[in-house]
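Below is how a single chain appears once it has passed through the pipeline. First comes the sequence as given, then the structure the pipeline wrote out for it. We keep one example in the README because the format questions we get most often are answered faster by looking than by reading.
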Amino acid sequence: MKTLSKLIAASLLIVSVSASAFTTSETIETPVAATKAAAYEQGVSKLSSLQGSTPGQLNYRLGTYYGDIKEDTLRINDGGFVTVQERAMTDGSIGYVGIVNVDVSFERNENDR
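Resulting structure:
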């Protein structure tokens, strides 16, 4: 019976921990470049910069408000990737934009209100 009680308590703890962790996807565009290669390089550079960022830097660089998050829990998950998108400009020229795709995870502060 003690084992069952411990198992139930452990399950409840896991559920409460996972309920406070959040994951979301973010997409960041680079400036327009003249070639696909240049846009891809800009995207790779931006992805590398994001992956090497501290939680505070990420909060600033992503420019997204996630609410009341716990300090130092914002992070980029593995598996970010870069794509390139072709765009027609208003003057008729073609430009290329690097699209950086990342999954971000964080924990929210629990407010006792």
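The chain has one domain: 22-107.

See the next section for the split statistics.
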